[in-house]
Amino acid sequence: MRSDEWTDGPMRTKEQEVSAREDGKAWKLLENTLQASIQEQRRSRRWGIFFKSLTFVYLIGAFLLFSPLGSLDNSAGVNEPHTAVIELRGTIADLEEASADNLITSLRRAFEDTNTRGVVLRINSGGGSPVQSGYVYDEIKRLRGKYPDIRVYAVIADIGASGAYYIAAAADEIYADKASLVGSIGVTAAGFGFVETLDKLGVERRTYAAGEHKTFLDPFQPEKPEERAFWQTVLNDTHQQFISQVKAGRGERLKDHPDLFSGLVWSGEQALQLGLVDGLASTSTVARDIIGAEETVDFTHRESPLARFTRQLGTSIGSAIATHLGMSSGMPVLR
User: Fold this and answer.
1) Rounded to two decimals, what is the model's pTM?
2) Which range scores top for mean pLDDT: 12-21, 29-38, 197-206, 277-286?
3) What is the CATH architecture assignment of 68-325?
4) Which family does the UniProt entry place this protein in (predicted)?
């Protein structure tokens, strides 16, 4: 064996090792590239599935919200004489269950049903917005004129006060239980004052507004006597509107009592003596003995859970914005 074979052998081995290392690096780089590509494809596929699912849920939600399934109709399929019952429950306010939109929708459907023999507005509410109450009051009056053969009866359960009584006054007759709470014919607007608290904490209130009295309901600024007097005129005017509508609805049935419109609330028995109600009876009693149609059908307009969730979400966002802008305090309430 020649000596150059001994020298050439190791040199070839080193070249092979270098080549092998380079090939290994290349394969490693290729492997990493392929793995990154696979991971990116998986990530893209996951996001694609997510957005497709989100779109599907949105479409289903939109369908339920804007289709007839978006509200619950309990009156469908009733083809015999009946008493239409509409629930007025909770706070009377826009976007609430007892909003004017919901109540008016229920009333119209009840009156338009050819098998309705009478309408019972079953009330369990302490009041709310004078505007919403006024809308419902006016609509009851209009429907009574349009359908003179269908009478409206308000039946008060636990409480029918303030804005709820405002609406009840539009009915032909009002009934309650002997222990029901009735009346509270008054207006309130309440808030808090934090001026001294801010001073003690060393907090400076910075408000920027155009208009001399724009911030007169701001709880973080001192109350001015002239603004307080002005706000009282607004409440007094709203109170007089309330009184006028009650008198128009109840007429001579109201007794002359010095505290009748003072904001006091009365038991059902006391309300009967004052002419605030016409008798003591339940919904079933009115349907059976007064209307003469014992079968009752619920015409209350109710939102689906999805529609209610969507509305409440929007209300929460709107309330947060209103609070941030300082527009959410001190509105008049019939309560």
Assistant:
1) 0.70
2) 277-286
3) Alpha-Beta Complex (3.90)
4) Belongs to the peptidase S49 family.
